[in-house]
Amino acid sequence: MSVAPFSELARRYGDDxxxxxxxxxxDIGIPRSEYPGYHAMAVAAWGIWSFSPEExxxxxxxxxxxxxxxxxxxxxxxxxxxxxxxREVLLGLGAEPDGLTGGQVRRIVADIDGAADVVALTIAxxxxxxxxxxxxxxxxxxxxxxxxxx
Length: 150
Known about the structure:
Strands 1-2-3 form a three-stranded parallel β-sheet, sandwiched between helices. Helix content is about 30%, strand content about 15%. By secondary structure, it is of the alpha/beta class. The protein contains five helices and three strands. The longest helix has 14 residues, at about 100-115.
């Protein structure tokens, strides 16, 4: 779901667009990967830097340092809900313990929004019955908040 809109943004903004893919399964596979399927290959051709959940817990410097090094003023964020620790709440199609907490995800996205202009946000693989929990996690995300001034 992110490939088409992010590709258009890459065409529009060129080297001034960074993509941040928050996902327990980074979707960087190739046809012979252990995690098969085209949905797992969404960003396989892009230059990928990867950060573990431990690196994204406070103070989260590696991601913000990476973003600063890119020099990009715009960011597209893909948020796959399986990045949230399944012991907190099972939001997505894959149960992944030891992930990020909902609060950590909110903080990460808020920090990204503070460091650059978030021009796109996609949300993937959530269970409809968990929408109430997801709304709580997404509160304050850029492009979703009614309080954001243009």
